Amino acid sequence: MADSPAKRHLQRVEAEEAAKRAAGGNLMEGTPIYQQTLLQLATDRARLKQIQSSQAKGQLKAALLPTYDAYIEGVLAADAGGQDDVVSTLMLWNIDAGLYDAALNIAAYVLAHGLAMPDRFERTAGCVVAEEIGIAALNALKTGAAFDLGVLNRAVEVTDGHDMPDQVRARLLLARARGLLPPDTDGAPLDAEAVDQAIDDLRKAIQLHDSCGGKEDLKRAERLMKKFEASQSND
Fold first, then answer.
1. Cα separation of 112 and 161, whole Å?
2. Which of 70, 96, 133, 173 is the most exposed place for a label (fewest CB within 10 A)?
């Protein structure tokens, strides 16, 4: 696919019009823009299969994704909600590439309209979003790296009410709770509202999956809250 501005604009318009025409059906099956994009996706998937490293695959996906921007923009602008394997797949690719905001923009559309993942995926779309972002966040936090709390908030919000294994939702809540808690150092500033939300997330996570790994986090969060409340009462 050429990437000239004129070509991208045409792709966007074609995708939007095709999505509107196919609203409520099997989206763009048989339409030129869908078939063209599906063919491009198959070609790129073949390239990815030649790579064993997950990190290298994520880097290649990041390089490939701009090719699909016009298509995604058109489908999301139509907001028609027909089944579209390209959109569902690219939602996951954005997560794999670490492009979480873009992934969640697509996820909001996918989940609002009940789009399924392609047949080769065993998980629901809601499970994919919660699990992949939860794992990415926990892995980052384990190494002391920062993870955007706004991404975790959006992931929790957009997947709320969608069916998934309890341990998957527990993992996402655990990740957000750990992101909300201050560093485990003396004198770290305390945001009582954030700690309170962390306590709530941790309690829910443990209730959903007793072995989620959040029990020590909960003890620490409750100690921080008691310490804060004691300092308030002494003022």
1. 11
2. 96
Q: What is the pTM (predicted TM-score) of this model? A: 0.90
Residue ending a domain, among 91, 120, 149, is 120
CB-CB neighbours of 51 under 10 Å: 13
- How many distinct structural domains can be found in the chain? 2
Domain boundary among 66, 92, 120: 120
Residue 222 exposed, middle or buried by CB count within 10 Å (0-12, 13-18, 19+): middle
Q: Which domain holds residue 150?
A: 123-235
d(CA 113, CA 115): 6
**Looking at the structure, do residues 34 and 98 belong to the same domain, yes or no?**
yes
Residue of 126, 130, 128, 152 whose CA lies nearest to 141: 152
DSSP letters, 63-92, are HHGGGGHHHHHHHHHHT-----HHHHHHHH
pLDDT at 125: 97
pLDDT tens column, 82-130: 889 999 999 999 999 999 999 999 999 999 999 999 988 999 999 999 9
112 and 213 belong to one structural domain: no
Which structure tokens are listed for 143?
Answer: 């190494």
**Tens digit of pLDDT for each residue in 190-217?**
899 999 999 999 999 999 999 999 999 9
